[in-house]
Amino acid sequence: MRGSAGFLLCSLLLLAPRCTEVAAQDIQPDPKTPCANWMGGAPGYPGHNGLPGRDGKDGKDGAKGEKGEEGLQGPKGDQGEIGAPGREGPRGFPGYPGQKGEKGEGAFVYRSAFSVGLKERAPHPNVPIRFSKIFYNEQSHYDASTGKFLCSIPGTYYFAYHLTVYLTDVKVSLYKKDKAVIFTYDQFQTNNVDQASGSVLLHLSSGDEVWLQVYGEGDNNGVYADNINDSTFMGFLLYPDPEVH
């Protein structure tokens, strides 16, 4: 027995270096664990996938980014329906007074007019002809006793006369404030009845007088009137002066 045991021990000692050399050629041991690979078993199979982990907590908001460039304007939309009227707003403050307007015409209408005719055949020369046949003298601005029109409303007036000429020539003049303004001359034709006429626009001030009279010494006094022929004198206010309004 002692001899068999010694033989087995010697055999193991001789085989140990050879096994070590073969193992060194097949697998290089980990320097940290020189005997791990020599003593470890075969590699195992990969394990099953693990369960998903729980959701993490929300992170904090990051810093606000820079403003982007303005985009292109889109197409105009359809017109919407008219909405209901809103509530009446508060009353505003009074505005500043406007500029003074132009002076308007007064409500009162100024009137001054007359129309008269001759009754006498041959009026006296160089004095106002007294037209005593009254056609219109509602304002009484014409005085039949003197033959003169007296201005009561300053303004612009129109005067006219139409005289029948018979038996002799006629030369008459229209006076304003003792001054002849216009003259009318008509030469009588034998066995004929003629007409002499004249008209004028005058500006009168309050108190001015206007009348008609034969001019000369009586040689030209053919102004005539009868039941079928008239000699007339008339005048009326066109418009009063602005300061009268």
Automatic annotation (TrEMBL):
It is found in: Secreted. Keywords: Collagen, Hydroxylation, Secreted, Signal. Residues 107-244 form the C1q domain. Residues 54-70 have a biased composition (Basic and acidic residues). Transmembrane segments: none annotated. Its main location: secreted. SUPFAM superfamilies: TNF-like. Residues 1-24 form the signal peptide. Residues 28-102 are annotated as: Disordered. One of its GO terms (cellular component) is extracellular region. Pfam families: C1q, Collagen. This is ADIPO protein. It comes from Rissa tridactyla. The lineage of its organism: Eukaryota, Metazoa, Chordata, Craniata, Vertebrata. The gene is Adipoq.
